[in-house]
Amino acid sequence: MYGQDQSRSSGGNEDSLQDRSKGLFMHLDVGKLDEKAHLRDSIRMTRSLKDHLNRETLPSPDNYHPHFLTIGSRATLDELHLGEVYDQKDGNSEPMEIVPGGFKFGWVQGVLIRCLLNIWGVMLFLRLSWVVGQAGILQAILIVLLATVVTVITALSMSAISTNGQIKGGGTYYMISRTLGPEFGGAIGVIFAFANAMGIALHTVGFCEALRDMLKEYFDVQIVDGGLNDIRIIGSITLVVLGSIVAIGMEWEAKAQLLFMGILIVALANFIVGSILGPSGVDELSKGMVGYNFEIISTNFEPDYRVSKGLQQSFFTVFAIFFPAATGILAGANISGDLKNPSEAIPKGTLLAIFTTSFSYILFAVIAGATVLRDATGDPANYTDNATVNDYMQICLDQECEWGLQNSFQVMTLVSAFGPLNYAGCFAATLSSALACFVSAPKIFQALCNDKIFPYLHVFGKGYGKNQEPLRAYGLAFAIALACILIAELNTIAPLITNCYLASYGLVNLSTFHVDLFKPVGWRPTFRYYNKWLSLLGFSLSVAAMFLCSWPTALVTSALVFTFFFIVKHRKPDVNWGSSTQVQVYKAALSGVQQFSTIDEHIKTYTPQILVMTGLPNMRPSLVDFAYLFCKNNSLMICGDILKERQSHKQRSERINKSLHWLQAHKTKAFYSLLDNISFPNGIGALLQATGVGKMKPNILLLGYQSEWSNSKNSEIDEYFAAINTALEMHVAVTILRVQEGLDYTGILRDFDVKDLTKDNKKKEGKKGIDNPTFENQRERSVTAILPTYTTSESVDTEFTTVSAECGEIKVAAKFLSPTESAPVKKIRMKKSRVLFKDPQGNDLPSEVQNSICRFRMKQKRSTIDVWWLYDDGGLSMLLPYILTSRSNWANSKLRVFCLANADEEQNVTKKSMKLLLEKFRIPVSDVVVIHDMTQSPSLQTKTWFDALTKDFVRKDDDPSNLDSNIPVIKESELLAQKHKTFNFMRLRELLLQYSTDANLVVMTLPISQKGIVSGPLYMCWLETLTANMPPFLLVRGNHTSVLTFHS
Q1: In 3D, which of 627, 699, 704, 705 has the Cα closest to residue 663?
Q2: d(C-alpha 400, C-alpha 921), whole Å
Q3: CA neighbor of 1007 nearest in space, from 899, 873, 825, 902
Q4: Do the beta carbons of residue 895 and residue 867 sit within 8 Å?
Q5: How many angstroms separate the first and last alpha carbons of the chain?
Q6: Do residues 488 and 123 make contact, with C-beta atoms less than 8 angstroms apart?
Q7: What would the pLDDT profile of 143-166 be if each residue is shown by its tens digit?
Q8: Residue 179 near residue 161 (C-beta atoms within 8 A)
Q9: Please, which residues have CB within 8 angstroms of residue 26's CB and are 6 or more apart in sequence?
C-alpha cells in the first residue's frame, strides 16, 4: 500500500483521498502531509514476534498455573499501562519444590482394570451365591440393580466433577473438598480413608476364607483350629506381603494387577462353562449342584430370608453385605494423582467398568439360582440320579445341611468346571481388591495430611522417591487393616464399610448437586451426561440405604462425619479452593441484601451500621474496639481510610491486605474501605454514599476526636468540621469519641506485617489467631483509677505521656491540666493475654500504654455510664449506651441519665416523666438526674479557662492574619454573636466536672452549629470545653429519626 501511495501525485489524488476519507473520523489533508511527520515513506522492518508484542504476552497454559504468582510470565497492567517493571520472582517467596514426574497410568490400566478387579472381588466368589439363597433370583437382581443405580448416578456425578478442571491426588477426597469445601471434604476424607483401610481387611479376610476352605477340602489341613484363628494368622501374613508389594512402588503393583486380571477372567469363564456342563458326579449333586432346571429356577426365584450369624436377614441386611462389591467404582479415582489424564480416564473407565460388572453380577446370580439348591447335605447316599428336585429339597427339611446356596460360600467353586481354577480366581479377585485398597487408602491419607486440615496428621503426608510414595501412610493403613483382620468375620466387616462408602457416595452426589444448583462461572464440566436432580436422587438413595442397612452404624457414621465437619469448621483452615459453598454464601448474601432492600425500615429493626474512620486499623486499635462493641454479632461495621495522595495499585493492595488481615487476626468482623487522592470531607461524603449495598450501608459516622486541633492549620480544622457537616447534611448520625490519651498510636505501635502473621501461624499450627480478649481489672476501685484527675484551671496547658524510642520521644496522649498538677497513673494488674502490643523496635510497651490501648476490652466492674440526653435526636444518644451495657465487658455498668428542665418546673415531675419514658423504651437506668440550673451564668474561673483556650485564635474582624489559612482564626464578631451558646457549653462543663468525673464513660448529645454561621475553630473550642480532662467521652447526634419506640 505504501508503494502505491508513493507513485501517486499529491495534487492528482487529493480529491480521491478526501472522498475515501469521508467515512473516517478525521479529514485527511494530503497537501499538508509534507509539512508534518508522516509514514508514507516509512518501510516496516522485519521483526520477530517477540519484538512485535513488546511487553504483551500470548495466551499460555503457564500463565494460568495455580502458582502463577511465582512462576507466571504474563505482563501486569502496571507494566503495560504505567511502564513499571517488576521482577518475575518475588524475593521473599519460597522456591517451589519441583517433584520429578513418576509412572502414570492410562484409562485402561489405571481405571478400567482397577475398577473391574475391585468390583469382581470377594463378594462375587464368596457371597453372591449366599445373596441369591437369601433373596432369591428376583430380589438378588434387584439388589444388584439398586447398587448399580447408586453407583451409576455417583459415577455420573463424579465424572462431572472430575472433568471440571485438573484433578490431583486424593481422588474422592480431592473432588469433595474442592467442591463442597474443606469441612465436608475433611470429614469424608477421614471416613473414606478408613473405609479403604478396612477394605484391605475385608478382601484379605475373603482370601483367607477361600484359602482355609481349599486347604480343608483338598489337603485336610488346618493351622490351629480351622476357624477364626486360622483366618487371623493367614490374614496377618498376607497383609505383610501386600504391604511389601505396594511399598516397592506403583509399577510393581500395576504389574501384579495385570496378572490377577488374567487369572480372574479365566476363572469367570470357568464358572460359566461349569454351569453348562452340569454336575460331574453324585458328589457334586449331593452338595446341591444339579445343573439348569426349571423347577430350581421357580423355587429359587422367591426369597427365603433366614437367621444367619444370629441375625434375621432381610432385603436391606443382605444389601448391606453385598454393597461392598459396588464400592470398587472409586478404585481409579482414588489414584487420580497417578493418572495421565484423570479428567478423561475417570469417566470413561469407571462407567465402562460399572456396566460390565453389573451385567456379570446379574448373569452369575441367575446362573447360581438356576443350577444350585438352597440346601444340600453333601452325603452322596441321599441323592440318586432318578430322584426329582423336589425330592432333594425334602431331604433338608428334617436335618441340618451344610451345603447349598444358604449354607456354603464355595458355590462358585462347586459350579466351576475345574474347582482349583475357581480358587485361583477367588485369590486373584480378593488380593487384587486388597491391593487396590492398600494403594487408595494411603493416597487419600497423604492428600488429606498435605492439606493440613487436621492438626498433627501432616507427618503421614511425607512422600518418598520419585513417585512420592506415602510410606508413613502405608504404615497407618497397615495398622488399621490389621486391627480389622483380627475380627476375622466377613459379614461383620462388610456393613461397616458399606456405611462409609455410602456416605462417600452421598457426598459426591451432593457435591455435584450443590455446585450445579448455584452454577458458578467456573463450573464448566466437559462431561455433559449428568443432572443435578439425578445427583440429588443419588444422595437421597445413599443416605436412605445407609439407615436401611444398619441404622445404628449409620448413626455412628453420620456422627463421625459431623464431628469432623465441626472440627474443621472450628479450626478454620487457611485454604481457599473456590468451593461451591463460597458461591452459596455469595448468592445467599446477595439475595438477602436484595430482599432486605425491598423491606421498609422499621424502628424495631433499627441497627447501628457504623463507618468508623480508623485510617490503618492497626494504628487505632482502641477506636476499632469501641466501634466493635456496638456492631459485634449485631450489625455492619466499616473501617474507613482516606488518603490525600494517590496510591498505586500495589500500594492500595498492600494497605488493604494488611488491614483486612489485622482485622481477621484480631477477630474483628468488619470491612475496610480505602479512598485515595481525595480530601477528608469529600472522602467522608464518598464513603457514606458509595460504601455498602442497598440498605446495608452506614447510618452512623464515628470519628476520633482531633486532639491536636489547636496546633493544626486552619484548613485542617475546617476539613474536620466540614466532615461533620457533610455527614449531617446526608442525614447520617455523627458520633465523636475522645479519650485523653489519644486514639492514634502511629509511631508507638509496631507496624503489622502479614508475613509475620503467616510465619507465626505456621509455627503455632493448630492454635487460633489473636482474638478480641477480655481484660479484667484486678482492683477494688473502678477503672477510673487509671484516669487523670480532672480539675479546672485559669490556664490551659498540655502534658504528654511519652514512650522512649530510638527515634526520640513519642507523644502518646494529650491531657489538659493545670501547670502545677500532675496526673499520676495508677498501674493495674491485667490478666495475661495473647494480645501483647510492641513498639517499633519489638519491645513490650509499658503497662500504662498497654492498658490505654486495651481500655475497651477491659472488664468494667461496678462502672457507670453517664448519659447526658440534652436534646431529642431520635433516641440514638440513649440507644448506644444501652447497646454498650448488653456487652459482656460492660454488663455490670449502670446507666445514669441527665436531662434538662426549666428552673420553674417541678423537678420531680420531670424526673418521673423521664423515668416513665425510659421504662416504656425498656431501658433500665440506675438514676435520673434533672439539671434545673442550666441557664445560670458560668463562673469566672470557667470563663477564664475558656479565654485561655481561645486567646491564640481570636482576631479582630479586620486583622490581616484572617486571610492566612495556616492559622486558626475566630473573629470577634463571631465570638460575640455565639456568646449565648458558648456560655451554655461553659455551664455544661461545670456540670460535667461536678457529676461525671468518676464515670467510666460519658455520652452526651453532640452540639450542632448552623451551617455558615459558626467557624471550625470555634466549634472545636466548644467540643474542647465539653470533653477536656474528662473520662472517655462520646458525643452523639442522631439524624432526628426515631430509633426507639415503646410500641410492640
Answers
A1: 627
A2: 84
A3: 873
A4: yes
A5: 83
A6: no
A7: 999 989 989 999 899 888 888 877
A8: yes
A9: none
pLDDT in tens, 627-637: 999 998 889 99
Residue 468 is given by DSSP the state T
For 921-968, give the secondary structure using H, E and C.
Answer: CCCCCCEEEEECCCCCCCCHHHHHHHHHHHCCCEECCCCHHHHCCCCC
| Rounded Cα distance, 666 and 857, in Å | 12
What does the DSSP 8-state code read for residue 923?
A: -
C-alpha cell at 619: 494504628
3-class DSSP string for 304-357: CCCEECCEECCHHHHHHHHHHHHHHHHCCHHHHHHECCHHHHHHHHHHHHHHHH
Cell numbers that stand for 92 in this block = 521473599
- CA–CA dist 389, 679 (Å, integer): 101
Please tell me the chain's helix, strand, coil percentages from 3-state DSSP, rounded to the nearest 5: 55, 10, 35
pTM above threshold 0.90: no
Nearest to residue 949, comparing CAs of 1034, 1033, 1018, 1031? Answer: 1018
Residue type, 347: P
Q: Could you tell me what percent of the chain has a pLDDT over 90?
A: 23
Which cell is 652 given? 492500595
* Closest by Cα among 664, 568, 539, 673 to 616: 673
Cell numbers found for residue 439? 494403594
Identify any residues that bridge with 815 across adjacent strands, giving them in sequence order. 799
Beta bridge partners of 868: 898, 1004
- What is the C-alpha to C-alpha distance for residues 272 and 265, in angstroms, rounded to an integer? 11
CA 279 – CA 415 distance, rounded (Å): 8
Query: All 3 cell numbers of residue 81?
Result: 499501562
Cα–Cα distance for residue pair 159/511, rounded to 1 Å: 12
According to DSSP, the residues that pair with 289 across neighbouring strands are 372
Whether residue 379 contacts residue 422, with contact meaning beta carbons closer than 8 Å, is answered with no
DSSP alpha helix (H) spans, 875-978: 876-885, 907-920, 940-950, 972-977
How confident is the model over 695-708, as pLDDT tens digits? 889 999 999 998 88
Q: Taking phi first (over 0 means left), then psi (-120 to 50 degrees means alpha), and beta for anything else, what does residue 677 get?
A: left
Whose cell is 446356596? That residue is 405
- In this structure, the strands spanning 894-900 and 927-931 are parallel
Q: Measured between alpha carbons, how far is 350 from 330 in angstroms, rounded to an integer?
A: 8
DSSP 589-627: HHHHHHHHHTSPP-GGG----EEEE-SSGGG-HHHHHHH
What does the longest C-alpha to C-alpha distance in the chain come to? 138
CB 271 within 8 A of CB 359: no
The three three-digit cell numbers of residue 623, written as one number = 477506636
- Report the alpha-carbon distance of residue 244 to residue 256 in Å, rounded: 12
HEC string of 805-843 equals ECCEEEEEEEEEECCCCCCCCCCCCECCCCCCCECCCCC
**Grid cell at residue 407:** 449354607
